[in-house]
C-alpha cells in the first residue's frame, strides 16, 4: 500500500494554537486546558485531562475519539492512557506526551495537519506494546460506512453502526474484500496506514464504539480526512491507494451473465451434469458468455468426473458459452498434487517448523496448504498448470477463488503481505477471469481493474439484502466493478424460492455485472437431494432481467470508462450524489448506478415498497411519469414483474439509460 510519501493533494494548513505549547514538561505534570489546533477548514481539540481528540467543522463536532480512547496491551493485560503531560510544535506538526497507568511508561503522539486531513501517529516509550488500540465515538460522526465485507457472510450492516462488525483477523490476507478505510455521514474518514493484521470492532455488543487495534510492533498510524461530503472523502482515499488503470473485464462480460456451477451442482460436479445444466440454460434462452465449472483439476477424482474437458469445451461453445474453471492456491492433503507440492517446498511453511508445510482447516473441514507465490519455483509450477489447462483442455478462463497468503503461515524469506498480493494479482492478470474477477484486500490490486465479487450469501431475502449492502461497501472502498454472490445465493442453503431468485436477478440487472448459478429451469436441493422446479413465469422473469441488463450495457460501459478517469464507484449510495438529503444516509435498499439511474428493486416479500427519491427531477421507468424530489413514494407498486427504477433527468447518460430501461409503450 502506498505510504504517506506518495504524491497526492495535501496542501499545508495554517496552524493556529489556542493553548500554550509546552516544552520539557515533567512527566508527572498535566497540561492545563485543551490544545486547539485550527485550520481554515476545521479545528482539532486535544483534551489534556485524559488524552482525546475532537474534530470540529463550523463549530460542529464531526468526529471524536471515545473517553479512554487510547489503550495498549502488554502480554494479556490492557492498560490506559491518561493525562497529557507535555506538548511541542514543529511547523504543522504537534507532538504530545501522555502518562499511562504504568510507571515510567508514556505515550508519544504526533499530529500533522493538512488542509483537508491530519495524520496521527502514536506509540509507547519505556515499554513495548503487543497491541495499540484507538476507539472512536460512533455517534460523534453520524453514520459509518466503509470497511468492506463483513466476516460474517450472512449479514452486512448498512450503515455499519446499524448493526455490529467484529473482525479479529482484518488483514491483507483476508478472504473478505476489505480495506482499512472508514468514512462517515459527517464527511470525515479514517484510513489506517498499516499492512499488518488488525482487530476491528464496530458497535461490538452495541457499545457505540469504533475500535481499531493494530499490533504494537510499529506505531499506530492513521489519516483522518475532513471534507464537506462523503464523496470527497472517498476521493481522498482513492488518491492514496490508487484507481483502476483499465477494466480487466471486456464489454461483452459486462453485457451478459457469467454462469458458475457452484450453487447449481455443489457436490455433484460432473461433466454430464454441467452439460445438462448448460443445455437447459441455452434451451430456455438464458444466455451468457461463459459457464464456469466450480471444481479444481487437482482434485483426486477430477479425471473420473471430468474425463474429457476438451469435448466439454467444444459442446459448451456450440451452446454459446466459453468454458471456465475454478482455481485457487489451496492444495488439500487429499489433492492429487499435494505430495509433489509439499516435497518440492511449493507450499507456505509452518511458522514453528519451516521444514513442514503450513496446514490449516479449509471451508470443508479438510486440511490444506497454500501455494507460496513468493517462491519463484512454486509460482512457475502453478502458472504452468493453468497454461496447460488453456492450451490442452480448452479452458478459456478462470475463477480465482483464493487468498494469496494466510496469516497462520510463515512468509517466504524477505516477502511481505503486500508482495503476496502483488504476485497473485500479476499472475491472475495473465488469464481471462471471465467477469468472476478477483477477491483481494487492502486495495492492492486496483490498478489491474479486476471485477470484484462479494462473498457467498444465504439463499434468502436477508441474503439478498446483505449482498446489496456488501456491494455498496466494497464499491465505496475502491472496488468499482462489483457483482454480488451468485444470483439466488449459495452457502449450501436450500435453493432460493421463486420470489428470491427472480428479485435477485432483477436487482443484479441494475448492477455493473451479473453473476449467476441457480437455474430458473430447476435445481437440485443440496440439503435434501430433491429436485426443485420453477415455473415458466420464473424463467421469463429471469430472462427479462438478463435482457434489461444487456440493453443497459452501453450505459454501464460509459460508467466503466468514466471510472477509469475519476476512480468513482459505479454502484454507489444515494448520499454520494445527494449529500444534502439527510434521508439518503440510511437508505440500504436503493442505489445509484452511475449518475442517471436510481435502482430501487424489491428486496423482500410483498408487492409494494417505499421509494425515496433525492432532490431533482426523476422519470419513473415503470410508467413514464415525472416525479420531483426529495420525496418518499409510499407503497409503490412492485409486483413480481416490476423492478422499480428511476432516471435522473438532466444527468449525464439519462437519455441512454431511459431508452434501455423504459417499458414498451412508456412515454419517452
Average of pLDDT: 93
Question: Assembly state here?
Answer: single chain
Uncertain runs are: 1-12, 19-29
Q: Strand content of the residues, in percent?
A: 25-35%
Structural class assignment: alpha+beta
Shape: globular
- In total, the number of strands is 37
Tell me about the largest β-sheet.
17 strands, antiparallel
Range of helix content: 10-25%
Distance between the termini: 47 Å
Helix count? Answer: 14
Outline the fold blueprint.
Layout: E1 16-17, E2 35-38, E3 43-47, E4 52-57, E5 60-74, E6 77-90, E7 93-100, E8 106-113, E9 117-125, E10 131-137, E11 144-148, E12 165-170, E13 178-184, E14 188-192, E15 198-202, E16 209-215, E17 220-226, H1 230-241, H2 251-255, E18 258-260, H3 262-265, H4 271-283, E19 290-293, H5 302-305, H6 309-319, E20 322-327, E21 330-332, H7 338-343, E22 349-350, E23 353-357, E24 360-361, E25 367-370, H8 376-392, E26 397-400, H9 417-428, E27 452-453, H10 461-475, E28 482-483, H11 498-508, E29 515-516, E30 523-524, E31 531-532, H12 536-566, E32 571-572, H13 574-577, E33 591-593, E34 597-599, E35 608-620, E36 626-637, E37 645-648, H14 654-661
Parallel strand pairs: 18-19, 18-29, 19-20, 20-26, 27-28
Antiparallel strand pairs: 1-2, 2-3, 3-4, 4-5, 5-6, 5-10, 6-7, 7-8, 8-9, 9-17, 10-16, 11-13, 12-15, 13-14, 14-17, 15-16, 21-25, 22-23, 24-25, 30-31, 32-33, 33-34, 34-37, 35-36, 35-37
Helix pairs in contact: 4-6, 11-12, 12-14
Amino acid at each position: 500500500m502506498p505510504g504517506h510519501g506518495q504524491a497526492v493533494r495535501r496542501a499545508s494548513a495554517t496552524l493556529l494554537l489556542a493553548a500554550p505549547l509546552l516544552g520539557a514538561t515533567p512527566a508527572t505534570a498535566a497540561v492545563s486546558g485543551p490544545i486547539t489546533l485550527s485550520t481554515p477548514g476545521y479545528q482539532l481539540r486535544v483534551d489534556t485531562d485524559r488524552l482525546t481528540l475532537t474534530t470540529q467543522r463550523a463549530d460542529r463536532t464531526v468526529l471524536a475519539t471515545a473517553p479512554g480512547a487510547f489503550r495498549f496491551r502488554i502480554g494479556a493485560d490492557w492498560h490506559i492512557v491518561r493525562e497529557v503531560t507535555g506538548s511541542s510544535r514543529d511547523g504543522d506538526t504537534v507532538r504530545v506526551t501522555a502518562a499511562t497507568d504504568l510507571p515510567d511508561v508514556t505515550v508519544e503522539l504526533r499530529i500533522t495537519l493538512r488542509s483537508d486531513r491530519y495524520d496521527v501517529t502514536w506509540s509507547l516509550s519505556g515499554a513495548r506494546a503487543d497491541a495499540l488500540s484507538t476507539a472512536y465515538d460512533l455517534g460523534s460522526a453520524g453514520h459509518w460506512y466503509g470497511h468492506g465485507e463483513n466476516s460474517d457472510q450472512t449479514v452486512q450492516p448498512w450503515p455499519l453502526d446499524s448493526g455490529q462488525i467484529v473482525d479479529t483477523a482484518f488483514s491483507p490476507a483476508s478472504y473478505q474484500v476489505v480495506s482499512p478505510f472508514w468514512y462517515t455521514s459527517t464527511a470525515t474518514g479514517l484510513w489506517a496506514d498499516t499492512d499488518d493484521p488488525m482487530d476491528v470492532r464496530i458497535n461490538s455488543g452495541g457499545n457505540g464504539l469504533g475500535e481499531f487495534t493494530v499490533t504494537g510492533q510499529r506505531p499506530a498510524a492513521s489519516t483522518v480526512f475532513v471534507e464537506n461530503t462523503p464523496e470527497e472523502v472517498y476521493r481522498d482515499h482513492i488518491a492514496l491507494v490508487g484507481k483502476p488503470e483499465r477494466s480487466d473485464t471486456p464489454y461483452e462480460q459486462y453485457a451478459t451473465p457469467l454462469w458458475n456451477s457452484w450453487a447449481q451442482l455443489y457436490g455433484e460436479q460432473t461433466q454430464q451434469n454441467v452439460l445438462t445444466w448448460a443445455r437447459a440454460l441455452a434451451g430456455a434462452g438464458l444466455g451468457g458468455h461463459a459457464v464456469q465449472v466450480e471444481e479444481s483439476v487437482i482434485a483426486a477424482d477430477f479425471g473420473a468426473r471430468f474425463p474429457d474437458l476438451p469435448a466439454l469445451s467444444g459442446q459448451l461453445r456450440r451452446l454459446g458459452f466459453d468454458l471456465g474453471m475454478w482455481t485457487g492456491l489451496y492444495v488439500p492433503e487429499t489433492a492429487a498434487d499435494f505430495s509433489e507440492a509439499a516435497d518440492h517446498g511449493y507450499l507456505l511453511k509452518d511458522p514453528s517448523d519451516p521444514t513442514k508445510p503450513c496446514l490449516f482447516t479449509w471451508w470443508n473441514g479438510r486440511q490444506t496448504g497454500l501455494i507460496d507465490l513468493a517462491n519463484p519455483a512454486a509460482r512457475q509450477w502453478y502458472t504452468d498448470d493453468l497454461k496447460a489447462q488453456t492450451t490442452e483442455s480448452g479452458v478459456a478462463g478462470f475463477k480465482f477463488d483464493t487468498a494469496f497468503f494466510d496469516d497462520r503461515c510463515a512468509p517466504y524469506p524477505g516477502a511481505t503481505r503486500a508482495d503476496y498480493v502483488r504476485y497473485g494479482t500479476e499472475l491472475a492478470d495473465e488469464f481471462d477471469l471471465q467477469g468472476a474477477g478477483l477477491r483481494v484486500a487492502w486495495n492492492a490490486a486496483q490498478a489491474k481493474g479486476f471485477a470484484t465479487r462479494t462473498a457467498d450469501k444465504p439463499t434468502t431475502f436477508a441474503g439478498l439484502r446483505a449482498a446489496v449492502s456488501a456491494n455498496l461497501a466494497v464499491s465505496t472502498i475502491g472496488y468499482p466493478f462489483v457483482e454480488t454472490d451468485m444470483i439466488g445465493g449459495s452457502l449450501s442453503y436450500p435453493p432460493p424460492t421463486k420470489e428470491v431468485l427472480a428479485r435477485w436477478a432483477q436487482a443484479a440487472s441494475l448492477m455493473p455485472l451479473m453473476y449467476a448459478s441457480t437455474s430458473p429451469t430447476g435445481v437440485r436441493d443440496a440439503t435434501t437431494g430433491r429436485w426443485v422446479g420453477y415455473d415458466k413465469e420464473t424463467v421469463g422473469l429471469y430472462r427479462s432481467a438478463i435482457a434489461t441488463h444487456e440493453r443497459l450495457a452501453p450505459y454501464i460501459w460509459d460508467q466503466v470508462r468514466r471510472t477509469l478517469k475519476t476512480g468513482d464507484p459505479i454502484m454507489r449510495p444515494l448520499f454520494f450524489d445527494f449529500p444534502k438529503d439527510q434521508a439518503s444516509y440510511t437508505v440500504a435498499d436503493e442505489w445509484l448506478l452511475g449518475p442517471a439511474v436510481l435502482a430501487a428493486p424489491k428486496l423482500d416479500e410483498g408487492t409494494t415498497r417505499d421509494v425515496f427519491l433525492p432532490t431533482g427531477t426523476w422519470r419513473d421507468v415503470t410508467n413514464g411519469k415525472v416525479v420531483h424530489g426529495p420525496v418518499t413514494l409510499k407503497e409503490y407498486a412492485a409486483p413480481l414483474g416490476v423492478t422499480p427504477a428511476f432516471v435522473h433527468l438532466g444527468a449525464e447518460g439519462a437519455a441512454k439509460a431511459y431508452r434501455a430501461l423504459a417499458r414498451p409503450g412508456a412515454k419517452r
